[in-house]
Amino acid sequence: MRRFFITLTAILLTAGCTRGLVIDTTYSSRNHDSRVQYVVLHYTSSGFDRSLSSLTQGGVSSHYLIAEQPPTVYRLVEENRRAWHAGDSSWQGRTWLNSTSIGIELVHPGYTDTPAGRVWHPWSQAQIQALIPLLADILQRHDLDPGRVVGHSDIAAQRKVDPGPLFPWHLLAEANVAIWPAAHRVTAYREELAGRAPPIAWFQQHLQSFGYDVPRSGELDKATRNVIAAFQMRFRPHGHDGEPDGETAAILAALVPNAATSPLWCKPVVNPSALPYGAPLPLCSPPGQAY
């Protein structure tokens, strides 16, 4: 009898091991969302063959690669897996965005440094037209708004410049897969500033509100210049020197709610044309002070 029980126990244990882990999926929570919070756009700085080799055999990767000719979309990493495309990065307070983003690399040379200066290469219209439906599909599936599409230079402004100043963000915005400032708002803020610019502290505060990792020193240090340049490359590509000028301020104010109601914002010049010829415009006043 004792041998019978020992044998029966062994059979049951063996059956239990064969069955393995069993998980009951009868119930599920409705309190969840996608782990994907952002889509990051890059250029590869090289041709297709080298790009494909780097992204599949090297130490970096991306979820998608878009070839230039023909403009083919390749999936290299499943979206539920982490790709290594963002590196040391930050956006809207989140850091190391590999874990929370989808990376899209576009085959593109980037720029060429020449004796006459840096020359940026144009983008293929067909390649952009291949990107737009991919972005639309990703945003829809992960329930993301167009503001969650960013460039590598946005999330890593101190070390990256892709996708560069010639990248057609406005075309993506027209397709509702990215954002762009409303022209009438930019014009209104430019007229309100009348050639002036708010202090550096204003830029730092609202660039951070928009999403950038920027110092809050109140000084125009190198890191702040890099962030301003990244913002300008995206939203004012004709001039991206990192200078905190009035046009850049107007664009930023058009993108960040309440930025133009900050105490650091320039007080309006009621009638600039009434000022004496050559007279300097009133400076932006410090908080709590009038002109």
TrEMBL record:
Q: Does the keyword section mention Hydrolase?
A: yes
Residue ranges of every copy of the N-acetylmuramoyl-L-alanine amidase domain listed in the record: 25-164
Gene Ontology molecular function terms on file = N-acetylmuramoyl-L-alanine amidase activity
Task: Name the Pfam families on file.
Answer: Amidase_2, PG_binding_1
> What is a single cellular component term in the Gene Ontology annotation?
outer membrane
Is Cell wall biogenesis/degradation found in the keyword set? yes
Q: Give the UniProt record's GO annotations in the biological process aspect.
A: cell wall organization; peptidoglycan catabolic process; peptidoglycan turnover
Q: What Enzyme Commission number(s) appear in the record?
A: 3.5.1.28
Listed transmembrane segments: none
The kind of enzyme this is, by top-level EC class, is hydrolase
Which UniProt key words apply to this protein?
Cell wall biogenesis/degradation, Hydrolase
As for family, the record states:
Belongs to the N-acetylmuramoyl-L-alanine amidase 2 family.
- Protein name as catalogued: N-acetylmuramoyl-L-alanine amidase
**Which organism is the protein's source?**
marine sediment metagenome
